Structures are given as C-alpha cells and as structure tokens.
Amino acid sequence: MNTATTAAISTRSAAISAIGLRKSYGDKVVLDGIDLRIPEGTIFALLGPNGAGKTTTVEILSTLITADAGEARVGGHDVAADADSVRRQIGVTGQFAAVDGLLTAEENLLLMADLHHLSRSEGRRRTAELLERFELTEAARKNVATFSGGMRRKLDLAMTLVGGPRIIFLDEPTTGLDPRSRRVMWELIRDLVTDQGVTIFLTTQYLEEADHLADRIAVLDHGKLVAEGTAEELKRLIPGGHVRVQFADEAQLAAAAAIFGVATRDDESLTLQIPSDGSVANLRAVLDALDNSGVRAESLTVHTPDLDDVFLTLTGSQNAAPTVPAPSATAQKESTR
C-alpha cells in the first residue's frame, strides 16, 4: 500500500473505535486498555498468540460481552448504551462454522432470513443470491453434514451476510481449512470490501492471511496492543532487512565490500549482503554508492523481515514494542534490478 492510499484511508470515518478497553476474569487481565480506530471500507487484522485477548476484543465490540472499563463505538453507536443499533449493522463469524448440519444450505440461509425478519420473497431472493455468490448453488439442497470444511465456512460467511451487515467480525475464519479453501475465503473477504464497501475486523493466527488481506494490522500480546501499522510498516520495525547484491567476479565483489564496511560478504555466491531498512531512500543510497565508485552489480534484491519475524519478535514479552513510524515510500519485499 502506497503513502497516498494510506493517507486516503486515514481520513475516512471510523467504522469501529475504542478507547481504553479493559476486561478481566478474576485476577486474569485479558485486555489492558486498548485503543482502536478502524476506517470504513477497510480490512483490519488483529494478530496475537492464543490467550492474547483477540476473541475477547471481538466479543466486546460485537456486544456479546461488556467491557470492565473504556468505551467503544461500532457503526457510530456505543456498544454498551446502544447495543441493539450495533447488532443491526454487524455480522459475526466465529472460529467454527455455526451451521446446522441437519439442514440443507438453502434451509440454513432461509432460517437466517427469518431471524432477520425478511419477507418470504426477500428471504428467497437473498438466499439465491448468496448461494450463487459463494458457488453453493449446486449443493443448495444437500445436507450440510455432507459438506467439506471449506464449503461449511463459505456457508457460514454467507449466513453472516443475509442481513446485509456493513461491519463484519471474522474470528479466525479460516481455521482448519486447506490452502486452496483458505485462498477462496480470502477472495470472498476481499470482494466484500472492494465491491460493497464492507468493513472487516479479522482475527487470525495465519500471518500470511493478515499480510495478504489487511490494510492495517495490530499485534496484541498480554492484553496490550504492542504495535500497529501496515504490513510494510510493521516489517520495518524488525532488524534483519538487507539488500543482496550479486557481482560478476571477485574483483567487483571486493571493490563493493570496500565501500560497505558493515556488509556481509559471500565469496562463493559472489554476493554482498548490506543492512537495509527496506526504504526507497536506503536502496537509492546503495545504488548511488555503487555507481559513484564504478562498481557494476549483476543483480540486486531487497529483502525485508516478514510477519513471522514481526510476530515472534513482538509477542511473548510484556515490554512494549517501538512505535510505528509515519508511513514512508515503500519498497517491494523483493525486487530485482
């Protein structure tokens, strides 16, 4: 995501906001004063290890439980004082598909339409539309007990959409799915945002999922938000980024090594690994230094830490992580020159 896109998103009205949310169960502090602001029409991912407080956050924001302290607004309504108005605007999909295996896919959707007090004709229209969108039309009259895990998750998400929610909470929606089914779900989720302007609040332990889907990501650990930003901003918090430059012969490698004193040299592969924060400015500085010295590089790749590195570095400790810097021009994770 480029700087202009990030700035445009930040000016949108907040679909979800929270200040100082706290929740404890006895002596166990689950949420320790978290703040959130999620713009309309975006995907927000909340990462964290088991027990970090992700599901508790979803339960508070979706009015299933109340916070001990703090305040939150969803769709412009206070989740504690105006819970009914919040519920009319949201949909919730939990970690496990909440479908009735004894009913058909069509019957599950029609039942949900009845619960939303849709007329019979509107309920049937909406059901047919969702079966088609989620590619379940051929299986519409089969018992859900015969469905694969991916089909059940698709039906679960379709049921969430019956009431036309503007804000959807997805609590680990692809848990247990195979890679192909997970990517199908990703496409469906992204389409909800791009085609309909829905806001998605996603919790996940699949870091690739957050990297692929989310406009912004927050990392929750021990009930505290320890970092927040775009995927690229979070990756730049973690040391280990570098520019890898390959040369045609040992003479060019040796000349380059003399320029970059902190670089790691590999004579076998004729490469030099130069520490980098992944920014365009840093990459330009490397290229200028080579050009000014008359050293010719054969190829160059930019490597930045991935979200696995971010997750492992930021979680597991109650110490706060560094503040995410203001967005800057973003280099590709791996580009070749």
Keywords, please?
single chain; 337 residues; four-stranded antiparallel β-sheet; 35% helix
Note down, in words, how this protein is organized.
- There is one protein chain.
- With 337 residues, the protein is α/β, with parallel strands linked by helices.
- Helices cover 35% and strands 24% of the residues.
- It has a 6-stranded mixed β-sheet with strand order 6-7-8-3-9-10, with helices on both faces. It has a 4-stranded antiparallel β-sheet with strand order 2-1-4-5. The chain has a 4-stranded antiparallel β-sheet with strand order 12-13-11-14, with helices on one face.
- A hairpin with a 2-residue loop joins strand 4 and strand 5 (77-78).
- The protein is elongated, with a radius of gyration of 24 Å.
